[in-house]
Structures are given as C-alpha cells and as structure tokens.
C-alpha cells in the first residue's frame, strides 16, 4: 500500500488523490491538496456526468474533522461542467454541500455535538472558534430546514418561553401528537401567533386541527378560536393549578405578614407543603396541615379548597364536572379569601374551555416536557442573546425534523 493510498483510506477519500500536504505547526493544521482520481464530474442537480468546461483558477478549501489534534483542511480546484439539461454549472462535490465550507461529516459531527453539549465545548473539540461554529451551525440548520413544511398537524400546544435576560419572549408551537416543536416566533402577542397561522398553515391545514391547548393568555386563545374553526380549545391544566397554588400562597403570605413572631414559627416551611399534591404527601405532612385548623384558619381553609379542587381532574362526565366546579366556586366565595376571588373570576370566564378537559384529557404536559428540555439547553448555554441562535438550538434538539439524520448516511461517522 502506498502512502497516498493509506492516507486516502484513512480519510475515506473516494475517487480523490492527495497531491500534496503540509503541516502548519503554529495553527496545528494539516493542509491537503487533492485532485480527482478519475476524470469526469457530475452535475449537482441531475447527478449526470457532464463535460468539463474549465478548471477554476483558485483553490477552494473545506474543513474536515480534526485528526489527532490537527485541524484538517483540504484544497481543491473546482471545475465548471456542461450539463445537457442544466447548462454551465459548477461540478457536484460528493463530500460537501454546494456552498458549504465544511464537509458533510464535519457537519454531522457538529450537529450531533451541539445536541449534546454547549457550543463552546463543541467548538473546542472541533478546533474552531465558537463564533465560527455558531455561524456554521446556523448555515447548516437553515439549509437543512429550507423548504421543510409543517405537516399533519392535529393537536397543537402553544406556550411562551423567555430567552434572554430583560424579559424577551418567544412563542413556541408544539405538535403534541409527535412531541416536537414546529414553530418558534419572536414575542408573545397576538401578532406573533397570527404570523404562524397566516404564513405557515393553509386554510385546509387549519381546518384539520382538532385539539389545541394553551395557557390563559388572551392572545393565544383568541388566535386559536379565530384561525382554527374545528379545534376544541382545552385550557392547560398545569396553568390552572399554578394559578390555584398562587392563590393559596397569597393567603399564606398575607397571614405571614399579620402573624406575630411566635405565630410565625408555626407557619414556617409551609410554602412547599401547601403546593404538594395530596398523592405525594406523607402522614406527617397531613398532620402538620391538619394542625393548621387550630393554628391558622384562613390558611387551612385555603388548603382544603385547593385539595378539593384536585377531584375535578378525575371526573369522567362533563355534566358532573360542571356541577362540581359550580359548587366549588360557591364554597370558595363563601370562604371570603380574596386571592380565591381572583381565581374564581378566571374559572368563571373560562369555564367552557376548562370543562373540555374532561372529554379530551388533553394537557400541555408534552409541551411542558419539551419546554423543560428547551430550558435546560438554554441554561446550558447561559442564555441566548438572539432569537435565531436560540431557534437553531430548539429545532436541533426538539424540532419536527431530525436534523442530523438529513446528512447522507455514509457521512454519519459517529
Ligand atoms: Zn444537470
């Protein structure tokens, strides 16, 4: 085996010949000059062989995967060919996309690494500056997602997420049947979500949406009801429970403010106990909470109300659930706890949209799960300054298109 053949085998260069190489010690770079082993080049569009018209004067350079600490760059004279169908055109590069500056296998490894670790860590392993990596990542994801359309949407979830310090928000649309993100947009207002419905879905697709879930945001509810004529809106269970917990916590805070030093001792450590679902409570917790009946009537009443509300989610018949809800509201109002007044207002306003839960059992749990993954990724990167960078990572980790799987199979080296 000649050295040239060995290098070709090692680097898996098919049909390429290494004509020269050079080690740049200062930059830890290995430069390889390559040329075609055989004559004849393919058209990038129809993959048919074309006649070579001319060879470009300048070399083009591609970055390949690093080997043993050396960054590998390879240099090649691209050629222009004449295709009977497509005319004069630059030849097809089997190892990289037409305009890419890196090879397919570099792209694949980069995409997989960025799913697993921070861009900073990936950049270090791949021997490139972080700015170059995020730029390259953006180009790759943009190219792979180009022309990708939202398809087969039946159950959607809409939620918001903050992505930057200073309260910048993005709206995320989830496909709850396939647990993935289909769209990310800047802002959390009506105009943001309108953009999704107007530009990314056809009227036919909007009509196909059967179920939708979101929080109590007026913008999202309005948009779903206006754009999706056949969709049943289910208000998200977790957001309702969150509001209820908030009401309980406000009662607790109010009592804490009014309590004397001695009384405060009894109220310590209640916050998380009050939040806890009855199924995760130990006997000791229940005893502590029951002792409040004597210690602090108002907190006790708030807790009992919250505990009773848990039953609502177990109802199977909508009429029974409605009856329960109405009774619960009466009891809550009788308790004269002001924070519950606010919660009852929400319940009354959205009664119809909350009751749809009983028939559908639909929650945003999948969306919340995805949202958690997104938050982990966000925190791992210590936040994102711009939305495009954040969107890239969302699509890469929980998007509707498996991005690394779009790289041709033979280049998936990991
Ligand atoms: Zn062609």
Summarize the structure.
By secondary structure, the protein is an alpha+beta fold. The chain has 16 helices and 13 strands. The structure holds zinc ion (ZN).
Residue runs with pLDDT of under 50 for 5 or more positions: none
Give me the number of helical elements: 16
Largest sheet: 5 strands, mixed
Provide the CATH architecture of the largest domain. Answer: 2-Layer Sandwich
The CATH topology annotation of the largest domain reads as Nucleotidyltransferase, domain 5
**What series of H and E elements makes up the topology?**
HEEEEEEEEHHHEEEHHEHEHHHHHHHHH
- The largest sheet has its strands arranged as 11-10-9-12-13
The number of domains is 3
What is the 3D form? elongated
Going by helix content, strand content and strand pairing, the class is: alpha+beta
> Going by CATH, what is the homologous superfamily of the largest domain?
Ribonuclease H-like superfamily/Ribonuclease H
Amount of beta strand = 15-25%
The rounded Rg comes to 30 Å
Would you kindly provide a written description of the structure presented here, covering whatever features stand out?
The chain has 414 residues and is an alpha+beta fold. It has three domains: 1-95, no CATH class; 155-236 and 364-411, Nucleotidyltransferase, domain 5 (2-Layer Sandwich); 240-360, no CATH class. It contains 16 helices and 13 strands. The chain has helices at 3-11, 104-116, 119-125, 130-145, 190-200, 203-208, 218-227, 237-258, 261-267, 270-275, 283-295, 297-309, 318-334, 338-360, 365-380, 387-398; strands spanning 16-24, 29-36, 41-42, 49-55, 60-67, 70-76, 79-83, 87-90, 155-164, 168-175, 180-186, 211-214, 232-235. The strands form three sheets. Strands 11-10-9-12-13 form a five-stranded mixed β-sheet, with helices on both faces. It has a four-stranded mixed β-sheet with strand order 1-2-6-5. A four-stranded antiparallel β-sheet has the order 3-4-7-8, with no helix packed on it. The longest helix has 23 residues, at 338-360. The structure holds zinc ion. The site of zinc ion (ZN) has 7 residues, from loops. Residues 43, 45-46, 48, 83, 85-86 line the site of zinc ion.
């Amino acid at each position: 085996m000649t050295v040239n053949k060995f290098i070709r085998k090692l680097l898996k260069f098919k049909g390429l010949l290494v004509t020269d190489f050079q080690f740049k010690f200062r930059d830890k770079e290995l430069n390889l000059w390559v040329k075609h082993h055989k004559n004849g080049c393919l058209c990038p569009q129809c993959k048919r062989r074309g006649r070579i018209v001319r060879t470009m004067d300048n070399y083009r350079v591609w970055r390949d995967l690093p080997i043993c600490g050396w960054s590998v760059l390879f240099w090649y004279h691209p050629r222009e060919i004449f295709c009977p169908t497509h005319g004069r055109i630059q030849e097809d590069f089997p190892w990289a996309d037409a305009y890419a500056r890196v090879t397919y296998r570099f792209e694949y490894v980069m995409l997989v690494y960025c799913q697993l670790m921070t861009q900073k860590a990936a950049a270090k392993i791949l021997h490139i500056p972080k700015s170059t990596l995020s730029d390259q990542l953006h180009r790759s994801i943009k190219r792979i997602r180009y022309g990708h359309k939202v398809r087969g949407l039946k159950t959607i979830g809409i939620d918001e997420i903050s992505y930057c310090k200073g309260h910048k928000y993005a709206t995320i649309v989830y496909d709850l049947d396939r647990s993935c993100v289909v769209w990310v947009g800047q802002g959390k207002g009506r105009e943001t979500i309108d953009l999704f419905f107007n530009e990314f879905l056809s009227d036919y697709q909007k009509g196909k949406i059967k179920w939708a879930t979101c929080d109590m945001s007026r913008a999202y509810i309005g948009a779903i009801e206006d754009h999706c004529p056949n969709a049943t809106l289910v208000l998200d269970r977790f957001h309702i429970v969150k509001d209820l917990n908030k009401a309980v916590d406000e009662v607790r805070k109010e009592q804490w403010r009014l309590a004397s030093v001695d009384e405060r001792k009894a109220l310590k450590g209640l916050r998380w106990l009050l939040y806890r679902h009855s199924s995760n409570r130990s006997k000791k917790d229940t005893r502590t909470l029951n002792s409040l009946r004597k210690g602090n009537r108002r907190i006790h009443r708030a807790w009992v109300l919250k505990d009773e509300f848990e039953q609502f989610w177990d109802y199977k018949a909508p009429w029974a659930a409605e009856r329960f809800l109405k009774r619960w509201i009466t009891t809550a109002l009788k308790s004269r706890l002001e924070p519950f007044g606010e919660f009852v207002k929400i319940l009354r306003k959205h009664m119809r949209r909350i009751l749809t839960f009983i028939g559908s059992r639909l929650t945003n749990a999948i969306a919340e799960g995805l949202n958690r993954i997104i938050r982990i990724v966000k925190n791992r990167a210590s936040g994102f300054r711009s939305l495009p960078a954040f969107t890239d990572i969302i699509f890469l980790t929980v998007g509707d298109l498996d991005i690394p799987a779009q790289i041709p199979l033979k280049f998936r080296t990991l």
